Structure formats: structure tokens, C-alpha cells
Write the C-alpha cells for this entry.
Amino acid sequence: MSADAKPDAGGWEPKIVAFCCNWCSYGGADSAGMGRFQQPPSARIIRVMCSGRIDPIHVFNAFLEGADAVLVTGCHIGDCHYVNGNDKTKIKYKFLEHVVHELGLEKERLYLNWISASEGEKFANFIRDVTEEVKKIGPSPLKPEGVA
Amino acid sequence: MNEVLDTGNKDASQDEEKRVGVFVCECGVNIGGVVDTHAVADYIATLPGVLVTSVNKFTCSDSGQADIQQKIKEHNLNRVVVAACSPKTHEPTFRACIEEMGLNQYFLEFVNIRDHCSWIHMWEKEKATEKAKDLVRMGVERAKLLEPLQASEVPVIDKALVVGAGVAGMQAALDLADMGFKVYLVEKEPSIGGRMARFDKVFPTNDCSICILGPKMVEVARNKNIEIMSYSEVQEVDGYVGNFKVKVEHKPRYLDVGTCTGCAKCSEVCPVEVPYDFNEGFGTRKAIYVSFPQAVPLRAVLDKENCINCKACAKTCESKSINYEQEASFSELEVGVIIGAVGFKTYDPAPRGDYGYGKYDNIITAMEFERLLNAAGPTGGHIVRPSDCKEPIRVGFVNCVGSRDKETNIYCSGVCCMYTIKNAQLLKEKRPETDHTVMYIDIRTPFRAYEESYNRARNLGVKFLRGRPVEVTEDPKTGNIKVRVEDTLAGEMRNLEFDLLVLGTGVVPNEGINKLQQLLKLSKATDGFLMEAHPKLRPVDTTIDGVYLAGVASGPKDIPYAVSQGSACASRATILLKNKKATTEGITAIVNPDVCVGCEVCIPMCPFQAIKMDEQAGKANVMKALCKGCGTCVAACPTGALEQDHFKNNQVIAQVKNVFRFEEVPA
């Protein structure tokens, strides 16, 4: 466990906070499980009803607490369970990107992705790709000392 | 940091001491085989507020649930965390479990350590265990902040809408109608019956398709509780479980359906001939026509696109039904439940030109073969080849066209093996001199009498060759089709020549599926068909309460399966229709009027028009009955006046914070 905490250790596993909507991307994560699509143990999923609920404050909190990357995920455009919550997510995400950049974080630390409830393999690949990107750039500069 | 906002409905539960019980499930070896559940429980027990932890082999079992209930009693627990599978399948079970003990059902926090942990980190046991600890800790901290909510009950309108009048939709409509409920049966084609009406015979019994479907169609038409809306399409759906408002467009037939008798004299005099879609483009129909002899309702329809406006039909029509000026009309329906039975289409090999289809005349699809075989078809039941109308002797069948192929669809359509076996049998019976070769990857014959049907075809002399054609060419002189195929059982290449080649085309999603998905916000699987709420335990439910799926809309199926699903939908829908009430989630947005400044940013955020301004107070006001609890307005509110029950900022942020652990850095 302590080995995980050391960024220079070979086994360093980034911590990624993944916000998922109840209907699509959370289901996609479930499908990844059902399909046994193996992925790095880096993501911690937080479920909300709609990606539209993901408040910038949730994302900033994640970075300030020590997230190495944050994922904003939802239904494909046009498939939103609540008609168009994800359209609003998309707009909000633009703002998020700017602020996260202003905070001095690399673009590899924030992602937006649409994943349907059936796209288990896509979910797993997404987590794997992000984890690899984040491993390349190392722990977040905002990560407080002593946080794992 | 974000402070907890006083939302105006704060209750005593927030002031009382939080007494959390955590129940870690092993799910047999599904979780226990990877995650060290006891290590997770031991760690979680050290967290403040956690009074008791427990590890169960199957927490969802009777004994697992009894354990939860007993510990609630023993330790006077007021929050329960279950770390197990997915809340999407098991949350209702545990909500009911704790509610029985007098706890508010929203005091349950469900943590997914199977689908999101053990199943996806099968070879990283230690890391999976550490992740499970994180996930459960996040859940515990969120659980401490959960507030009691009340699920609300809404009345259910005891009427149903069935979209699609194929055999599955008809069965659903009949069952509901026979149970006494009013059913609107909407069909986009001029007649009900769906794809089954086009089949010649159906496997494995080889009985005439329309002979068994026809009486059912008449039964539907006669049923007083069923209102058929043929040549109609659903345009808009609004509302929620029990209270759907549906707008249906009735396309103009350009005649009065009340007076038209379906005598088809108009067709006789119509001078326009167009390819007959019902016969897969073989033969012709007139611009004004009755879609097929057994059509229900038996009414003509004028195809305005091809009409030359000669008015011959109007002059002939004895009942003076023709009305060239007719326009589309609309109905507004109010129903409690919706059953989607929108069917499918067959894979079209033309765009890709699979196996030379479209390039060579004597290659047809199985559906085209089916129409040729039909006594009411374009050739009166004679199989002839398109190039010279000769009756073929050597017939080749290629299976898995548009199925089990990475280039098209990877899924198995499930019906092609059987209909190919049936088609070969039927032609062999009609003309024993014919010679048949079926080229296949695997022959799949599950279910009653299917294997027997396969054996029967072999006994009749139908040859089965395991292999997919690698090259298909035409002999330009004879129009014969030459096929180069590897016989993978014999391990040798074969060069075969056929008079006619029939492609066993698969089943693919149709436009109706896309439309229904958009209208109802259903989920679609990667294969393009609609998704059920659970593939095993809720096969006809969807994630939308009050909406059910029957037939091929949710994936390839044969007729008995589609009919069973029609009945299953009716049965599921009856639970709501008979109880006349539905329970909806208590999760909605709430406004703290003390913080709201009346900026109205939230109002356009809501797609359900659930937020209105209280003009007098100058504050936003959420109408709970309309709010569906997405929380989009909450994230948009610039002052923090809006909150979403069960997903309050402090509850989400508690999870975010607890993703991380503070560790002493070694000196």
C-alpha cells in the first residue's frame, strides 16, 4: 500500500475521480464489469443522476484533494435520460477546461467522454488510456503532501 | 470548502448521532475471490461512526438480509452501507430490507465493489482490495450525510400504448385488452401484421405464416378495447410513468377510412405501376392499393408520390371515399404505460454488394425467396430466377450474411439457420428434382423441434457445407452463379455452380428503433437494438418506468420468443395499470428561498419546465411532480440556492474527499 503512495515507485497508481451519470456511463462501468474488461485500479466512480449535475465545484474539489485526473462522463449527445442534460455538461466543460488550465494543470488531467450503458469495453479502454497518460506526466502538482 | 446549505427542509435526522453499519458481500467468489473482504471490513470498522461491519457470502440472500436487519436492531443503526454489486440491480432489494426495520429507504448507501472492482481487477488482488477500501470509505462518509426522503405516488392512467403491430405488439395489445384495459395500437404501415405477414411459412412446423397470423389480426381488429391506429406514427412523448402524453400522427391515406370497403376496385383502374414493397420489390402494385389481401384494416391507401392525378380511382369508387386533399391528422393520447414493439428490418446486402448481390441477377435474399415461395407472391409460389424466369435446379444458400461478421454485425441473428433449413425443405418438397447446398459457419438449432427440422432437411437431401464462399462470380452466358468455397470439414476448396444463390441475411435495427429511442430516451446497445433494464431478470422492462419492450426491438428473436415477450410486457404493464398508482423516486431539486436571488438561470436549464418563478416573492419554485431529479439546475445555480435531494453538494463532495487517504510521510 505504501508503495502506491510513492510517485517514483514503479507501481504508482494514479487516483482518478470519475463522475458518471446513473443511466449511461455508470451502466457502461457496470458493463465493463459484466464483460470482465480488465482495467487499471485507478478510477473511483462517483454516481450522479445526470452529467448535468456535475458541478465545477465537485471537479475543483477533486483536484484540490489530490486527484491526478478527473473524468466527466455521461450519455451520448441525444441519448440523455433527461432530454439534454449532457448538452449543458458540454458547455460547462468548456469553462472547466479553462479554469483547470489556469490552475496550471496539464490537459491530460481532465476528460469529457460520452459512454453508453452498453459500452463496457469503451469504458475500460478509456480508463486504461487515461491512466497511461497520467502515468506519463506523474502525480498532480496540486496533490497535497501525504495524500494517497 | 462548501458549507452545508440550510435547505429549509432540514430535519432532526441530521442532528442525531450517525450509527453506520457496513455489510460487505463476497458474492460467492465474484467479489471474495479477488477482494479480501475481511480486510475491507476490518479497515472500515476503524472509521468514526461505523458501529458494526459484517461480511456475508451473499448479502442479498435471505440470511444476508436477516443479518442486516438483526444488526440494525442490535446496534440501533440509522445508516446502512452495502458494498456489493450494482445499485442498478440490487438497490431496491436493500432499500426494502432496511425500510422493513423502520429506517427511511434513502438511508441506504450502495457501493459497487463487484462490477467496478473485483470483476475488472481480477489479477490485481491487493490493489483491488485497496480500491474496495476507498470505495467503501467514500460510501460510509456519504451515508452519514444522507437525509430521509419520501418516495411519492402518482396515479396511473389505465390505458396503454403499443407501438408497432407486428406479432409481438399484437400479442401485448390482445393480452392487455383481454384484461380489460384500453389499448392504442399504433402501426406505421397501412396494415397491422408486421414482418410475419410477409413470411411464407414459419419454422420449425412449416405452417403458413399468414394462416396463423391472419386470425390474430382479425382478433385484434374485433377487440373492443383495442383501437388500431394504422398508417400512424408516434411523434411526441411527454410525461412520466402512469401519465404519458403522446402525440400520434395519422398519415393521410387520401381516402375516407370510414367509407372505404377495401374492395380494391380503385387499384384495378389505376394505371400506375410501381415495384411492390410488400413483395420485396418483385412484381408491381398500383399507386392506390390494399397492402395485401389479408390487410387489417382492409382499406386502400393512395401513394401520393406515384399518383399521376388521373382521378380514375375517384370515378370508380362506389362509396366516393377518395379525397385527394386529405391532410395528416393528429391524436393526443393519455396513457399510463408504453410498450415498444417496433420490430426490425432485414440486413440489406446491396450497399456492400455482399457475395455479388446487386451485381449479378441470380443472387437474391432469403426474404425475396420467401415472397417468391408464397402462393400469393409475385410468381404464384414458383421459385424462378430473376435473369430468365427459369425455375432453378441447383440452389445455393449462404448463411450469416450481415451476421457474425466483423465487417457488418458481430452478433448472431439467431433465425437465419432455421429459415434457411425451412426454405430448402419447402423447395425440395415442391420440386424434388432440385439440389440444395447450404453454406454455413455453424448450424444453430436450439429450442423445441429445431434440431429435428435440421435432420429432416438432411434426410430430404439438402447438403450442408461448412464454409463461407470466398469468391462469387457469374457465368455471363448462362447467368449461373459460380461459388468458390472452402469445405472446412473436408479441408478442400470446392468450385460449385448454382442456378440461384440465396443469401441468408440477418436481422438489423430499423428506423423505428432509433425513433423510439429518441422519443423515450431509452438506451441502445452496441448492436443497435434497444436495451432492457436487466438482460436476465428484467428482459422486457426498460430503465424508464412504465416503458416495456417486446420482440426484435431489443435484439434478434424468433416468433415464439417475440410472442412471449408481448405477453410478458402486458403482464408487467398490468402491475401498474391494475394498481392504478406508481411510485416515483423522491429525488428532486429543492430551492432555498432565503438564498435564491431570482436570477432565473435555472429556468431554461430544466427540460421539463419544472421550475417556475414565484412572481410575488421573486424566487424560483420547483414543482416536485414535474421534477425528474437530474440536478442540472442545481449545478447551474450561481448562488447555491438550489440543491438536489440525495445528491446534495455536501454528499457528493464527501465522496470526492474520501477518494483520498492522508498518509504519514515517512520522515
Summary: The two ends of chain B are 29 Å apart (CA to CA). Chain B touches chain A through 61 residues (CB under 8 Å). Chain B has a mean pLDDT of 94.
